[in-house]
Amino acid sequence: MAASSNAEPGEAARSLVIRYYMAMGVPFAIDLASSTVYALINHQPLVLLPMATMSAAFLAIGVGFGAWLLFRPVQHFIAGSLGFPAIEHSLATLPRSSAILVAGLYAPMLALRLLSPRLGITFGANIEVATWIDTAASFLVGTSFNVVLTYFIVSAYLDRLCHHFFLTRGVNLATFPGAFRYKIGVAILFVSFAAMILLAGDIASYDGNRLLREATMDVTASIVGVAIIYYWITQALTAPIARLDYGMRHVADGDLAVRLPVTSDDEIGRATSGFNHMVEGLSERQYLRDTFGKYVHESVAAAILADQERGGRAADTLGDATLMFTDIEGFTALSERLTPPEVAKILNIYYATIVPVIHRHRGVVNNCIGDGLFASFNLPLPQKDHAAAALQAALDIQQALAQATFPPGIAVQTRIGINTGPVIGVTIGTADWLSYTLLGDAVNVASRVEQLNKQFGSSILAAESTIRAAGGRFRCACIGPTDVRGHQGNVVVYRVDPSA
Hints:
The protein is α+β, with helices and mostly antiparallel strands.
């Protein structure tokens, strides 16, 4: 197995390891505290040292060695000698393995402690012998408490550990053998029945003052135990849910850079992993839309991406539009005397100057071939006053080019032709190649009107349909009816004054 390329710094690695051993030592600390309380309440100080020694032998030594075995693969990953896939299962099941380890060590220790008085082992103290029912109840609840406690303490530790690995190594759990309902079920069962079992054992075993004393101690222990269990349950279970809620709120606000650490092996972990995949998909979709929008206008890209059932085809649309064609005057001669990189530089400056102007007036650039550009207004991007917008865009283009900075000795002038009429927006192509374009006689007329600029020595020509649709708001001069190749009948064209 390939080793991880980045080991944790020494201090950070030691801190991660120590925290696990501290988590595994909590049952020992609670057992020592409860033994001290028992000795004080019963005025039996002599039993404290033997009980503490027994607890230390079974828990501190046994759990310490067992915990070392369980955590050893994770330590290798922290040190950089193992890759994450090699330790992922061990990491995901660490709470369950740790709880099983504690059960295997605490159960025989507690059984020996509870049976010692019956075996005549009293450590010199006057210890009352418990009934078999009370002994069984104490054994069941005591063992269950430490198992449940260990599970949720280590789960809370695992949450922080996985969060740390996510931030420092960029790794996440991808195996989910656990079940959230079982975790909740075990916690609810213990909290609900622990005190009842202890009290039932006391009632079935004693009466009088001893019943009162035993019941008081068991109720007090149950309240303290439930409080401890409740704290660690909330730490272990609510942190991943709160983190998932945090991520969802950020995505709802438009933040697609958010990613979450997967810190549990159950449905919450699976949901968090699914959340990350979802956000990655949304981010890729947004990137595709943004990138696609550089080749196809954003409105077309959005329509194609939104309608997946059409297999990447935008819906065919019929409507009125204003069409614009532009062409650089004398470009052929210019390109013949310049090198290809110089020609490319000029074209980049040219398009960087005129395309933003078209977009500013809500026009859509449909196609660019060499120095020729085809743009449309009102289709595919709806626009109420599209003829006026196209005419104003043409005037602004001429003004922008006059202010643009081209290489020394290069003067770029463009000719513009505009026409308004019915067109259809269609997706054409094959299964492997698609293109969205506008078709119709109005498109052909706009292209021919642009070419008429050569004949009339003008820079902006517009068909009468565009001038009428714009409402006479622009200064222009009627040239008159003109024959347009490919169009039946003449077209009345107007010279638009760039100084207007």
